[in-house]
Amino acid sequence: MVVWTDQERAFITEIFGKLNYEEAGPKALQRALIVYPWTQRYFGSFGNLYNADAIIANPKVAAHGITVLHGLDRAMKNMDDIKNTYAELSVLHSEKLHVDPDNFKLLADCLTIVIAATMGAAFSADMQAAWQKFLAVVVSALQRQYH
């Protein structure tokens, strides 16, 4: 079980309070699909993903990015039991979608970049450390079924 300090909980809550899901979610997923083009293979039903402009303009990419952030919101609301909160998602991604588990970390890194760019200096090193810890727990929970 992960132990969270009051400050870490406050930082995570603050970050989510400042997140614009409709902007950050799409930007993070767009970045992942552009920077790591092999991740596109899981989105074959999304239509045109042939270049950066197509990815950025794709409404299905944007919608899924928002969905991902709402999924992270579930983790924030259940910080003391993220593993069980994500049990079904782990099974879905491993057994049905066959997503490479390394991609969760890639998307988490892209989201961190988007948050840092959005928050600027307010995204302090201590806040980033709490955020990275949070994402590491989420990624581990999503990868659980793969072990």
UniProtKB/TrEMBL annotation:
<dbReference type="GO" id="GO:0005344">
    <property type="term" value="F:oxygen carrier activity"/>
</dbReference>
<feature type="domain" description="Globin">
    <location>
        <begin position="3"/>
        <end position="147"/>
    </location>
</feature>
<dbReference type="GO" id="GO:0043177">
    <property type="term" value="F:organic acid binding"/>
</dbReference>
<keyword id="KW-0561">Oxygen transport</keyword>
<dbReference type="GO" id="GO:0046872">
    <property type="term" value="F:metal ion binding"/>
</dbReference>
<dbReference type="GO" id="GO:0031720">
    <property type="term" value="F:haptoglobin binding"/>
</dbReference>
<dbReference type="GO" id="GO:0031838">
    <property type="term" value="C:haptoglobin-hemoglobin complex"/>
</dbReference>
<dbReference type="GO" id="GO:0004601">
    <property type="term" value="F:peroxidase activity"/>
</dbReference>
<dbReference type="InterPro" id="IPR000971">
    <property type="entry name" value="Globin"/>
</dbReference>
<dbReference type="GO" id="GO:0072562">
    <property type="term" value="C:blood microparticle"/>
</dbReference>
<dbReference type="GO" id="GO:0042744">
    <property type="term" value="P:hydrogen peroxide catabolic process"/>
</dbReference>
<dbReference type="Pfam" id="PF00042">
    <property type="entry name" value="Globin"/>
</dbReference>
<dbReference type="GO" id="GO:0020037">
    <property type="term" value="F:heme binding"/>
</dbReference>
<dbReference type="InterPro" id="IPR009050">
    <property type="entry name" value="Globin-like_sf"/>
</dbReference>
<dbReference type="GO" id="GO:0005833">
    <property type="term" value="C:hemoglobin complex"/>
</dbReference>
<dbReference type="InterPro" id="IPR050056">
    <property type="entry name" value="Hemoglobin_oxygen_transport"/>
</dbReference>
<comment type="similarity">
    <text>Belongs to the globin family.</text>
</comment>
<protein>
    <recommendedName>
        <fullName>Globin domain-containing protein</fullName>
    </recommendedName>
</protein>
<keyword id="KW-0479">Metal-binding</keyword>
<keyword id="KW-0408">Iron</keyword>
<keyword id="KW-0813">Transport</keyword>
<keyword id="KW-0349">Heme</keyword>
<dbReference type="InterPro" id="IPR012292">
    <property type="entry name" value="Globin/Proto"/>
</dbReference>
<dbReference type="InterPro" id="IPR002337">
    <property type="entry name" value="Hemoglobin_b"/>
</dbReference>
<dbReference type="GO" id="GO:0019825">
    <property type="term" value="F:oxygen binding"/>
</dbReference>
